[in-house]
Structure formats: structure tokens, C-alpha cells
């Protein structure tokens, strides 16, 4: 299996390398060679015969005389490929068109050794040259990275337990639902099982000492420092490099980036990103200068799975915020894709307000969290896929806001805080219970209203209406993807498209971007404008979906034929404690078919309450 993965990865990498080399051979290299040789050519006067205008090329034919011999040629500029970068073609076409109409001769440059070779404009378009060279280099770097990653792919240990599929895990989960004490959702059960299985056969836990957190220099005592200073330094480095690269492109040939060309607007994104990076670097530096070192004093130390994570922070200065928000996250960091890019998924998170006390130096924050006993410990080695625990503290203050993050040790010690009584977890649970009770009571009254659901009861008939524009965040991201990939597709095709082989390759390269643009474009239309109406009475269930006012789905099922309702995950939005899981309720009937009876429900608890309410309504009429 490892050999197959290596071969596949190397082949993909070689394709990218060959693609980059081909573009380099067809564009940058011949352009540079032609430009160098043309610098020794001699000037002559020529008479224009014809000029043809196009968005990505300029064609012209002309006659000229050298040493008494007449010649005719049609080469206009140095580059031998089509492009629509900048306003070069518009300006050249306007100049040549005016000369053709007035009958004036134009200046050309010819090769003294071969007078039949000539060109109208022998100047190098450095902006286009740098852009093409960078494009080719990126392709080759991607290929080299894929090849290197494939060749250095580590073989998994033979004694590792084979991970089950999602289908197998779902069957395991369903078999445990009969146990009243079992409360895990499928998503929670899946994460728990995969983590447990991933630890089997791994002897690293047995080789660790009784206090593994002491192996990390930053965790030798209970005072943990944030990485605010190093984060500011790294942001400055990234911002400076980004802006230097961007300025190189802009100063190489500013005329290539004229706003008269639609594709030039894409280039404006890069300096805007550079400005934002500089803003972030300045903001983080000012935050560090204002607050300095803020140590998180842990109680208990280390944080305890099955116990508490808590402690205090002392802030200097007299300014005090109305609220100091504290968020604790258990983060799963993993590599994905052929380039082994790093990604994060929040396994568990809670957030709330810290208790504020006056201290000798300013303000003291105190808090603690109750940690479930099935969460993973902090990983010291941080090699490849790993878990770590992150504490965030922020507050809005006059001038510069407080924003700090701490990488903290959390282990299975079952210790509890000795001095901290302010329990954020109990606040979160009380608020969840209150909202759950309010939602359930509203459902029973038949007047439940939420972001995505309008519920009405008319006699024996219950109506659920899921209106348009209920998926605003998903629509926004779909729009961004559609616009971005669509712009890339347009730029590639317009810049290099044509009847030549290079044009065919350009179209081939643009196909993946075009496919993504098409898919996300359809999603951008469907997500905001689809609406679903469910009608339930004692005899039947009617599902009616429309796109704007146009029907796209209609289904009628007898209520007696519905065998079960199941809650399914439909993705999530946000991160950390602000992460919202979205669910749908699927109805199964005796015909073996299924259909959506509720969707876009925020939170599993609410989805299960709705599932129970709808099942009672269908089966028993109440």
C-alpha cells in the first residue's frame, strides 16, 4: 500500500513539474531569448497593411524596405503567446489603428543578419515576464513538494489497529442506543472511538514518566506564558515578505496592472492582503507593549481531564473591561492533502466570563472549567496528528484590546482546583438547560421560532416552514469560492487561451477551477433561495421544496407508513465555543425510501427534541 501511495504521489508531482517546465519553455524562456537578440536589431520605417484587434492579442501586417529589398512581416511584439494582462494591447492597438487610418509610417526593428525577421515593439514587458516565471515556478514547486512528501511518507506500524469505516462505527453506535446511560451523539462516539483505536499499539504512553508535562521547558512550573511576543514577531516577518513580493510585481511594470483590464482587479487583492497583514502586525505589537507578560497561574497544575482546568491571571493597569471572556479548547491538529497542510478541528470547547477581582497591581481574573473524562491529553511531541489544549483570554478595553492565547498542559490526573470556585462550565450548562426548556415548551405550544424554522399549528395540522436565506454563512463562503475560482478560470483562459497548443493546455489547467466555480456557483444560488414546507396531519405528511417560487421537489407519504425518524449531521459553522453544529431530521418509511422532514437545526439537543416531538405527532397525533 505504501509503495502504491509513493508511486501515485510521485506521478502527480512529476505531472506538475512537467506542466511548469512546459509553460516555462513555451513562454518565459523564448520571450527572454527573443528580447535579448532584438536589442541588436536596427530601426526602419514600415507601412501598415492591416491591424486586427482582440482582447488578448494584437495582429498587424506591414511592409518595409532594407537595402533596396522589400519585405513583409506580421510580428508585432516580443512575446509569442496571447495574454490579457494589463492595458498593453489596448494601447498598442490604439496607436497602430491611428497610424493605419492616417497613412503614417511606423518604426519597426529588423534583424541585420536576416532582414526578413522584424518586430514593431521590441521592449520587454517585465511585469508579464515575472508573472509567467512565477506561475511556472509555483507549478514546479508544488510538484517537487508532492514528490518529496510521497518519498518521505512514513509507513505506519504493523501493530496498529485497523480503523473502522464510518458505516461500521455507525452500526456500533446504533447498537449502544438501547442503553439508557449511553448519551453520546454519533459524532462524539466516532471521535472517541477513533482516538481510542489510534492509541492502541502505541507504546509511547508506557515509556513516559509519571509527569510527562515536565519534559516541555514551558511547562516546568504552574506559570504558563503566552506566545504573544513571538506571534507579533512572526506576523511582522510574514507581512514584510508578502509586501516585498507584491511590490516587486507592481514596480516591475505598473502599466501591466491598469484597471482598464478586468483581470487587473484580481491583482488588487494582494496589496489589500498586505495592508491587512501589516495592520495585524501593528495591532499585536501594540497589544504586547500595553500588557506585557501575563502569566496564567494554573490551579490545578497541570490541568486535569476528569477534573478541573483553571487558574488566575494578573493584569497590570487601572483600566477594567466590562467582561473578560475566557475560552478553553481541546484542539485536534492534523495533516491532510498531498502537501500535508496543517488543519485544526475543535474536539471540545467552552467559554464564559471570568470572575474579576482587584489585586495589588491591577486586576485579577479567576475561573475554572469542568473537563469530561473522555477527552485526550496534551501531546508533547506534536508530531504529525496530535491534540493540544488552548486557552484564550480577551476583553474590549479603551485603546487596545486584550487578546492572549496559552498552550497549556492537560493530563488525566483527576485533580480539582484548590482555591478557584468560579465555575464557567456550570454557567454554560445552566444556560443550555434554560434554552432547551424554552425550545421544548415552544414546540409543545406550536409556536416555535428559530433561525431556520417557522412552526404553526392549525387544528389537527402542523406546518413546518424553512424559509429562504436561512443559510447565510454557507452562502457567503460559496460565493467567495465561486468568485475566486471563476476569476482564476477567466484569467487563465483569457490570458493564454487560443487555437495554439498552449491555449489547449491553458484550458486543460483551468478545468478544475472551472468545475469548482460551477459547483459553488450552483450552491450559491440554491442555498439562499431554496425553501421547504412540511405539512403533517393524522393521515399524511407532505414535503414541498421550491427554488424561489419554482417547485423542485414534492412528496406525499401516509403517516402510518413512517417507520422512524433519525437525526443526521449537516455540517457546522464557526470554531471553538462559537462552533454551531447543524443537523437535519430524516424520515424513513416502509417503502424503503427517505426524505428530509426538518433541516438547518442548530445543535444536536434541539434536533433530538424536534425529532421526539415530530415522532409523537406522527404516531400519536400530539
Question: Topology, pairings included?
Answer:
Layout: H1 2-38, E1 42-53, E2 58-66, E3 69-73, H2 88-102, E4 106-110, E5 118-119, H3 126-151, H4 166-176, H5 186-199, H6 204-207, E6 223-225, H7 228-252, H8 264-267, H9 269-291, E7 295-298, E8 303-304, E9 308-316, E10 325-336, E11 341-353, E12 355-358, E13 362-370, E14 386-395, E15 402-408, E16 410-411, H10 424-445, E17 454-458, E18 461-466, H11 472-496, H12 501-529, E19 530-536, E20 540-547, E21 550-558, E22 562-573, E23 580-589, E24 594-602, H13 604-620
Parallel strand pairs: 8-16
Antiparallel strand pairs: 1-2, 1-4, 2-3, 4-5, 6-7, 7-9, 9-13, 10-11, 10-14, 12-13, 14-15, 17-18, 18-19, 19-20, 20-21, 22-23, 23-24
Describe this structure as you would to a colleague:
There is one protein chain. With 622 residues, the protein is of the alpha+beta class. The protein folds into four domains: 1-128, no CATH class; 227-289; 293-422, Immunoglobulin-like (Sandwich); 423-621, no CATH class. It is built from 13 helices and 24 strands. It has helices spanning 2-38, 88-102, 126-151, 166-176, 186-199, 204-207, 228-252, 264-267, 269-291, 424-445, 472-496, 501-529, 604-620; strands at residues 42-53, 58-66, 69-73, 106-110, 118-119, 223-225, 295-298, 303-304, 308-316, 325-336, 341-353, 355-358, 362-370, 386-395, 402-408, 410-411, 454-458, 461-466, 530-536, 540-547, 550-558, 562-573, 580-589, 594-602. It has a five-stranded antiparallel sheet. Helix 3 packs across helix 7 (228-252) and helix 7 packs antiparallel against helix 9. It is globular, with a radius of gyration of 33 Å.
Amino acid at each position: 500500500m505504501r509503495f502504491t501511495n509513493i508511486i501515485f504521489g510521485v506521478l502527480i508531482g512529476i505531472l506538475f513539474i512537467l506542466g511548469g517546465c512546459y509553460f516555462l519553455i513555451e513562454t518565459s524562456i523564448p520571450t527572454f531569448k527573443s528580447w535579448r537578440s532584438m536589442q541588436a536589431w536596427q530601426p526602419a520605417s514600415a507601412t501598415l497593411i492591416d491591424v486586427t484587434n482582440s482582447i488578448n492579442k494584437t495582429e498587424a501586417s506591414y511592409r518595409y524596405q532594407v537595402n533596396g529589398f522589400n519585405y513583409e512581416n506580421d510580428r508585432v511584439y516580443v512575446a509569442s503567446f496571447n495574454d490579457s494582462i494589463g492595458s498593453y494591447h489596448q494601447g498598442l492597438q490604439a496607436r497602430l489603428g491611428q497610424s493605419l487610418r492616417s497613412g503614417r509610417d511606423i518604426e519597426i526593428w529588423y534583424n541585420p543578419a536576416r532582414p526578413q525577421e522584424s518586430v514593431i515593439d521590441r521592449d520587454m514587458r517585465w511585469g508579464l515576464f515575472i508573472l509567467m516565471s512565477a506561475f511556472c515556478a509555483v507549478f514546479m514547486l508544488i510538484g517537487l513538494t508532492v514528490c518529496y512528501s510521497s518519498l518521505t511518507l512514513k509507513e505506519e506500524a504493523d501493530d496498529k489497529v485497523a480503523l473502522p469505516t464510518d458505516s461500521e462505527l455507525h452500526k456500533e453506535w446504533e447498537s449502544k442506543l438501547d442503553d439508557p446511560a449511553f448519551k453520546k451523539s454519533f459524532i462524539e462516539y466516532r471521535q472517541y472511538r477513533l482516538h481510542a483505536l489510534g492509541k492502541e499499539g502505541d507504546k509511547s504512553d508506557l515509556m513516559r514518566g509519571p509527569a510527562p508535562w515536565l519534559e516541555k521547558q514551558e511547562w516546568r512550573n504552574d506559570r504558563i506564558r503566552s506566545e504573544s511576543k513571538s506571534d507579533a514577531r512572526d506576523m511582522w516577518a510574514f507581512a514584510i515578505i508578502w509586501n516585498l513580493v507584491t511590490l516587486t510585481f507592481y514596480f516591475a511594470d505598473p502599466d501591466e496592472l491598469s484597471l482598464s483590464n478586468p483581470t487587473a482587479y484580481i491583482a488588487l487583492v494582494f496589496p489589500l492582503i498586505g495592508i491587512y497583514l501589516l495592520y495585524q502586525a501593528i495591532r499585536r505589537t501594540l497589544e504586547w507593549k500595553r500588557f506585557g507578560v501575563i502569566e496564567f497561574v494554573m490551579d490545578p497544575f497541570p490541568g486535569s481531564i476528569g477534573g478541573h482546568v483553571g487558574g488566575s491571571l494578573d493584569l497590570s493597569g487601572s483600566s477594567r473591561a466590562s467582561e473578560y471572556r475566557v475560552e478553553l479548547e481541546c484542539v485536534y491538529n492534523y495533516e491532510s492533502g498531498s502537501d500535508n497542510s496543517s488543519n485544526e478541528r475543535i474536539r471540545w470547547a467552552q467559554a464564559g466570563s471570568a470572575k474579576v477581582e482587584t489585586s495589588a497591581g491591577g486586576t485579577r481574573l479567576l475561573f475554572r472549567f469542568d473537563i469530561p473524562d473522555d477527552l485526550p491529553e496534551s501531546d508533547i511531541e506534536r508530531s504529525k496528528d496530535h491534540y493540544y489544549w488552548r486557552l484564550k483570554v480577551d476583553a474590549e478595553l479603551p485603546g487596545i484590546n486584550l487578546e492572549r492565547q496559552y498552550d497549556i498542559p492537560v493530563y488525566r490526573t483527576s485533580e480539582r482546583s484548590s482555591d478557584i470556585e468560579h465555575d464557567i462550565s456550570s454557567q454554560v450548562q445552566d444556560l443550555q438547560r434554560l434554552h432547551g426548556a424554552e425550545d421544548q415548551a415552544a414546540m409543545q405550544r406550536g409556536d416555535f421560532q428559530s433561525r431556520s424554522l417557522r412552526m404553526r399549528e392549525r387544528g389537527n395540522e402542523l406546518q413546518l416552514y424553512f424559509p429562504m436565506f436561512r443559510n447565510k454563512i454557507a452562502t457567503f463562503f460559496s460565493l467567495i469560492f465561486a468568485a475566486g475560482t471563476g476569476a482564476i478560470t477567466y484569467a487563465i483562459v483569457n490570458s493564454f487561451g487560443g487555437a495554439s497548443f498552449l491555449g489547449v493546455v491553458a484550458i486543460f489547467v483551468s478545468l478544475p477551477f472551472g468545475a469548482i466555480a460551477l459547483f459553488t456557483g450552483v450552491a450559491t444560488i440554491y442555498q439562499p433561495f431554496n425553501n421547504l414546507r412540511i405539512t403533517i396531519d393524522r393521515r399524511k405528511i407532505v414535503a414541498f421544496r421550491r427554488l424561489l417560487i419554482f417547485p423542485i421537489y414534492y412528496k406525499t407519504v401516509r403517516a402510518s407508513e413512517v417507520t422512524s425518524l433519525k437525526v443526521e449531521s449537516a455540517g457546522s459553522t464557526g470554531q471553538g465555543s462559537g462552533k454551531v453544529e447543524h443537523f437535519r431530521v430524516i424520515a424513513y418509511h416502509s417503502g424503503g425510501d427517505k426524505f428530509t422532514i426538518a433541516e438547518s437545526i442548530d445543535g444536536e439537543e434541539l434536533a433530538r427534541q424536534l425529532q421526539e416531538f415530530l415522532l409523537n405527532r406522527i404516531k400519536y397525533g400530539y
